[in-house]
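My main concern about presentation is that the manuscript never shows what a single data entry looks like. For the editor and my fellow referees, an illustration may be useful. For illustration, here is how one protein appears when written out as sequence plus structure tokens:

***
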Amino acid sequence: MSPRTSSPACSRPRFGTTPTAYLAMLRVQEMARLLRETHRRCGSRAAAGWRSRSRATEAFLAHTGIAPSRYRDMRPFVADVP
């Protein structure tokens, strides 16, 4: 993104938020998808683009109201099919 198109003034009307907040929301959505669809106990944070586990957990909690571990544990059990 160029500085001109990534400025808050340009993105706020388009996305309703700042570029940083929008990126965090996308990362949380991807992390939630990975927690629902995979059986990996870790790695969803990094695959969604977070470097820091604490920041990922903080953002996930802020956007969903639930910790990633609880979110993962709430999904229905699906047995691995060979």
